[in-house]
């Protein structure tokens, strides 16, 4: 196979970065690329896999190999900020679509997470959030009605939830987050424009205000193909 795959990889990458193969384009098949570059199919396969691993290409069942958008850098693992603020910081255009916003009785899981009684009223806010016009994260948030009367009058398509918390005297101060890897079911795959079974970053978040009141419980499903998460760790002296 020698190093021919590196030449193929470089030429494919040049075509991607120059826009010849634009985002969303299905590149030629393995067989077609083999004829185009006059190399073996294993050579093509290795070159393409390098670009897949680097996030430039994505293999889709029944569709082929597609040029990807650059990865969206998510750094909320290091600090507390709204989705819109994070995206603006990285030069990414964001948009929010409210899927559902209603009051309902807290289930056993929600009540336990918010430390309220089962069947207490909570708001259920379901949003689909976009980055550069691509569906990126599907997030469901539960909020105690007792702490925030009148939220149903607010349009969270344009208004930030954390801004509302602050205006009502419950600024977010601390968030506990857990991360798992999950697979997209049919509904989530349809909402995020991915294939069923594709990997997701699955976050559960519990937010506290400055008085340590539990004010939100959120479940967020981020696309695994277009997001990358950064962590910043400090070494504690003496450990």
UniProtKB/TrEMBL annotation:
InterPro entries: Bact_HTH_transcr_reg (IPR050679), Chorismate_lyase_/UTRA_dom_sf (IPR028978), Tscrpt_reg_HTH_GntR (IPR000524), UTRA (IPR011663), WH-like_DNA-bd_sf (IPR036388), WH_DNA-bd_sf (IPR036390)
PROSITE patterns: HTH_GNTR (PS50949)
Organism domain of life: Bacteria
Official protein name in the record: GntR family transcriptional regulator
Entry annotated with the keyword tRNA processing: no
Domain HTH gntR-type: 2-70
Cytoplasm in keyword set: no
Alphabetical UniProt keywords: DNA-binding, Transcription, Transcription regulation
């Amino acid at each position: 196979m020698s190093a021919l795959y590196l030449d193929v990889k470089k030429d494919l990458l040049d075509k991607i970065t120059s826009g010849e193969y634009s985002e969303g384009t299905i590149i030629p098949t393995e067989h077609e690329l083999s004829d185009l570059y006059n190399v073996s199919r294993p050579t093509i396969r290795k070159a393409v896999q390098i670009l897949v691993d680097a996030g430039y290409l994505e293999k889709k069942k029944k569709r082929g190999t597609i040029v990807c958008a650059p990865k969206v850098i998510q750094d909320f693992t290091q600090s507390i900020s709204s989705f819109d603020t994070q995206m603006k910081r990285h030069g990414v255009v964001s948009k929010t679509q409210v899927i559902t916003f209603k009051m309902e009785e807290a289930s056993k899981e929600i009540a336990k997470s918010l430390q309220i009684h089962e069947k207490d009223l909570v708001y259920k806010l379901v949003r689909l959030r976009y980055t550069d016009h691509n569906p990126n994260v599907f997030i469901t948030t539960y909020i105690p009605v007792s702490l925030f009367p009148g939220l149903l009058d607010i349009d969270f398509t344009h208004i930030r939830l954390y801004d509302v918390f602050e205006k009502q005297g419950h600024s977010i101060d601390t968030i506990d987050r857990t991360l798992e890897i999950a697979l997209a079911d049919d509904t989530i795959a349809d909402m995020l424009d991915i294939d069923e079974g594709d990997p997701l970053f699955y976050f559960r978040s519990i937010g506290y205000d400055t008085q340590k009141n539990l004010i939100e419980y959120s479940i967020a499903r981020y696309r695994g193909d277009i997001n990358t998460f950064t962590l910043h760790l400090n070494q504690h002296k003496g450990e």
